[in-house]
Structure formats: C-alpha cells, structure tokens
Design brief:
The structure is a single chain. This protein has 555 residues and is an alpha/beta fold. It contains 17 helices and 17 strands. A five-stranded parallel β-sheet has the order 5-4-3-10-11, sandwiched between helices. Strands 6-7-8-9 form a four-stranded antiparallel β-sheet. Strands 1-2 form a two-stranded antiparallel sheet. β1 and β2 form a beta hairpin. α13 packs antiparallel against α14. Pfam families: tRNA-synt_1e (PF01406). Its cofactor is Zn(2+).
Length: 555
C-alpha cells in the first residue's frame, strides 16, 4: 500500500529506487566465467561474469534506428562491443549468441520517407544496408541473429496483450497503449539503472507522465500501421520492440525470461533500458531480466563537444574511412576504455597510427631475422624473450579479464614488441651452422606468433593480413607465399644495386672517369629512391638500413 503513496509523493522520494515489497530474487542457477569481471550498470561495480548456461553467453545488443547513415559515434559503440565479444570468445572460450535489432519503424523514418517521397521501407532498407556495410568495413562481426521490428509485429502485439491482460498496461481513447507504472511498482522494482524521478503529472494521453507508450495510435492513414486485437490501429513504441524481440522472438529457445548480457550506448541507459527491463519483468513475472547491463560511453569531438545529428556535427563512418583506416579506429579503441568518454582528435588517431607502425616494423624485422638467421647461431637472449613472453601472456589474460582492459593489455604487448626489436637489432650472427637447434629463432618466432594471435583475436585486419602474407613462409603452392617470394627477390635485387651505388668511390678513378662514376652513383640511388616511393604508393614500404633493406605493408 505504501508504494502508490511514493508515486504520489514523488518529490519526497526523488532520486531513489522504488523497491519491491518483500519479493525475493528468483533463483536462477548461474555459472561463473573464471577470470572475467565486468562493470555492471545495475550493481554499479565490477562483478564476475555469470551465465545461465555453462560456456554459453546470451547477449542482446541495441541496434540502430535506420533513418540516416551511421556516424563514428555509433562506430565507437559497436567496435568496442565487438572487441568485448572477441575477448569473450577467444580468451574465455565462451560461445556467444548475440542478437541485434534493427528499428525500421520510427517517427524519424516516417518523416524521412515523407520528405523524400518514398515508402518507409525504402528508407529503412537503404540505411540498414549501409549500416551493415559499415560494420563490415570496421571488421565488426555479424550478430548471430538480426531482428527487424517490422518482421515481429505479431510478437510485439502478443507481448502487449499479455500486459493488458495483467492490468500492467492500459489503452486510451485513440487506441494507444501505455505501460502502467503505478501498477508495476506494486510488484516489481523500477529505477534499477538510474534513480527514478517520480511524478504525478498527467500527460495529454496517459494517466501519468512516467507511463510510456507501448503502442502509438496512427496519426494519419499514410503512415505504416497495424491493427491489433484491442483495436487502435497504430505501430509499436520504441521500448517495447527490444523487449518483445529479445523475449519471445525466434531466439526464445535461448533467451526467453533471461539474458546474460544486454548492451548499448550510455545514452540508452534511461529511459530505454530501464523500460525494457520493466516490460520484460512484467511479461515474464520475474524480478530481474538481464544478468549484466554493459554500457559504452560516448565518442566526442575535440574539446569534448557532443556529436549529434541535431547539431549537424557528425561524421559518417563512410566519410571517416576515406581518410583513416578501420585499424586506426580499432586501435584507438584498444588504447582507451569503453567506459570513458573519448575525444576524437588528430592526436588520438596519430597515437593509434604510430602504434600500428610499430607493429608493422616489428613484423618486418622479425621476418627479416627469421629468413636470414635460420642456419646460424645468433646473440639473441632467447631466455629473456621467452620469459618475457610467458609474463606477457599472463598479464594480457589478467588485463582482458579486468573489464576488458585492452589499454593495459596492449601496453604489455607493446613492451614485449620493443624488447624483441631491441634484441633483434642488437644481435649478431656467429659464422657457423647451428648444430642442434637455434634458440634465437625459436624465441623470436614464438613472440611473433603470440603478437600475431593477439591482434588477430582483437580484429586488427591489416596487421592480420600482413602476418598471413609474411609469416606463412613454409607453405607451398599458395598465392601468399608466391607474392612474398617475388617481393623478397625484388627487394634483395634493389638492395644489391643500392649497395653497389654506395660503393662507388670517385677517388678510385681517373679524373674523367670520376665524374662518370659520381653520375652513375647518383642515377642508381635516384632510381632506388624512385622505386621505394612507387612501392609505398602501392602499399609496400621499404626501410633502408646500413647494409640491408626490410619491407612491410602499409595502408
């Protein structure tokens, strides 16, 4: 009886959770994922990741409302969640079942269709395809199941009918349906994710301004609408779409009344996610629907300026990728935290680009060392490298398990890279064949394999492509090996020509011949420089050292 009073005396209880009255948490058997802790927006702290089924993680992720091209703020969110998914799958052996929705019915879509004199389906299909293409360009893995609102109208109306039957929703004169928050808080908790601002103010259509729309009556005969069993021709409200598709859609054999992880941008935390939780608790008659709420903070422009379509200061993903690479953006994500607001600046992108260069040079130097020192002992401190490798592997697993701390994990990998490069560059070979084994080769190859797997696991595509091309040197009858050999031979020939040019001494020739010698040297070196620049334009960068030349791919 006290709970309705709390609503009526809203100002007195402002900023507090409205809790259930004597209702205990349902007993859901949970399985802890060893070593993986996540920050849960419900508990406001890091907690061990729990799943309902052993080694299977169910995950619902809020997708876009497709009325325009996705921008880099969206990219920040989806790339970060993709990194999390890769960590779960690759480092903690979870079988991730991920569902993402596409909101293809919305006021903004309808308005866009009116403005462009198109059917709403044409508008939503156009931007849905563009969004999926953007995700592919960013190397974001596809969700296990993709759901579109327009395909799930029967499930949505069935969901609403259940809430109406339980008197947890009510219809209005125009056929709209609203969630009955007064009735809900008599049984369940509201304000789990954010302190609830109670109100007694009536809105134009609903009984209470806190009541949100489950079904919106059609405003005109031209807009998309459906006729449910209670009458009231119209379309779904925003919050009900996700609840229905995650709870009673084609994936109900996995999800149903429990989802292990639900994620989205921090701007969706309230009211969208709070209302999703309330709807599902009401429908399934449970005190809690989501195990872990995970929210990504925002990507801002330089100076902390919010990115917004209304401010007309967004940059589409397609536009961004015309100047920068997907790997630069992903590396920027890896070097930061998903829970911090991130400023998109030239400095942050340069930091990411510089790190990618470090990785590429490391690959080239390892490759050169492995190719040229197989038959000879070297002064590489193999014990130091292998010990550091074991320590780094342990640190990476520890950091990734600490709420996906990729910044610290990547920093640990960087230290190993720099140590290995130092050993390679300071090494010299003993002029005799190795008798039994070459520990230097084993150590460098082991580090290279670890680094390649780390970046491959986290989705850095160009680094992975480079490694696939450069490191499969023992494969046969493969295009990659053939291409690598051709480049090797060409670079070696150029290196020999360059060394010959550098060896020309004008003082060793007669005066008349000296000018010719100097001229020949200049011509050869100029030709070598020109080839180097031409190859760079084609994505191959040569690095001239004192007596050798290494190469790597660049974007």
């Amino acid at each position: 009886m006290a709970l309705p009073l709390i609503l009526r005396l809203g100002s007195q209880y402002c900023g507090k959770r409205i809790k259930t009255c004597g209702r205990k948490f349902s007993s859901v058997p949970m399985n802890s994922v060893s070593g993986l802790n996540v920050f849960d927006s419900y508990s406001k702290k890091k907690t061990p990741l729990l799943t309902k089924q052993p080694n299977i993680l169910t995950w619902y992720i809020c997708g876009p409302t497709v009325y325009d091209f996705a921008h880099i703020g969206h990219a920040w969110c989806y790339v970060n969640f993709d990194i999390m998914r890769r960590v779960m799958e690759q480092y903690f052996n979870l079988n991730v079942i991920q569902v993402m929705n596409i909101t293809d019915i919305d006021d903004k879509i309808i308005q866009k269709a009116i403005d462009e004199k198109l059917d709403f389906k044409e508008v939503s299909n156009k931007y849905e395809m563009a969004f999926l293409k953007d995700l592919d360009s960013l190397s974001v893995q596809k969700p296990t199941v993709l759901t579109k609102v327009s395909d799930f109208i029967p499930q949505i109306t069935s969901f609403i009918e259940t809430l109406l039957h339980r008197e947890l929703a009510y219809s209005t004169d125009d056929g709209s349906v609203y969630f009955n928050l007064n009735a809900y808080v008599k049984k369940y908790e509201y304000g789990k994710l954010k302190p609830f601002q109670a109100s007694t103010v009536e809105s134009k259509n609903s009984k209470n301004s806190n009541d949100f729309a489950l079904w919106k009556a059609a405003k005109s005969a031209t807009e998309p609408s459906w006729t449910p069993s209670w009458g009231g021709k119209g379309r779904p409200g925003w919050h009900i779409e996700c609840s229905a598709m995650a709870s009673i859609s084609k994936t109900s054999f996995v999800f149903g009344p429990w989802v292990d992880v639900h994620s989205g941008g921090i701007d969706l935390l309230f009211p969208h996610h709070e209302n999703e939780e309330a709807q599902c608790c009401a429908y399934h008659e449970i005190p809690r629907w989501v195990g872990h709420w995970i929210h990504s903070n925002l990507l801002r422009l330089s100076g902390g300026i919010k990115m917004s379509k209304s401010l007309k200061n967004t940059v589409s993903i397609k536009e961004f990728l015309q100047t920068y690479s997907a790997d630069q953006f992903r590396m920027m994500c890896l070097l930061s935290s998903y829970r911090n607001d991130m400023e998109l600046t030239e400095a942050s992108l340069r930091l990411a680009s510089d790190f990618l260069d470090v990785v590429r040079v490391f690959i080239a130097e390892c490759r050169f060392f492995l190719r040229n020192n197989t038959m000879f002992q070297s002064s590489i401190d193999s014990k130091l490298l292998l010990t550091s490798l074991v320590e780094t592997e342990s640190m990476v697993k520890k950091y990734l398990g600490d709420d996906f701390n990729t910044a610290q994990a990547t920093s640990a990998v960087r230290k190993l890279i720099l140590l290995t490069r130092k050993e390679i560059n300071n090494s010299n070979t003993v002029n005799r064949k190795a008798t039994n084994h070459n520990p230097g080769i084993v150590a460098v190859a082991s580090v290279l394999n670890f680094v390649s797997k780390y970046f491959s696991n986290l989705g850095l595509t160009s680094a992975v492509a480079t490694l696939q091309l450069l490191c499969n040197m023992h494969s046969v009858n493969t295009t990659e090996t053939d291409a690598s050999s051709i480049i090797d031979n060409f670079v070696e020939f150029r290196s020999q020509v360059r060394q010959c040019a550098l060896a020309i001494k004008s003082n060793q020739q007669e005066k008349n011949d000296s000018a010719d010698g100097v001229n020949t040297k200049k011509i050869l070196l100029t030709a070598c420089d020109r080839i180097r620049e031409d190859l760079k334009l084609k994505g191959i960068q040569l690095k001239d050292q004192e007596k050798t030349t290494t190469w790597t791919f660049v974007k």
